[in-house]
Amino acid sequence: MIFAVICKDWPGKLDVRLATRPAHLDYINALNAAGKLRFAGPMLGDDGKPLGSLVALEVADRTEAEQIVADDPYAGAGLFETVDIHAWNWTFNPPEAK
Fewer Cβ in 10 A, N or C end of the chain? Predict the structure, then answer.
């Protein structure tokens, strides 16, 4: 099942995001290698700077999605103000259709 993960950063924490980014990218790359990552990237503010993350995980259940988010170095650094996790149905333009 695919889960959409929407994380909003705490305001004024761009320095935390930048300092933690190398460890976060290693973590995301490992998820990708394990076949659990469908897509991911930062959400940007009007100023073009990151203000959160959008991640799609293909995992067995919500519990696994929650654990993946909890283990992310960004979460460990206290970057996220909010985290929303929702089961998601990729209806239009899924990669398999191309």
Answer: C
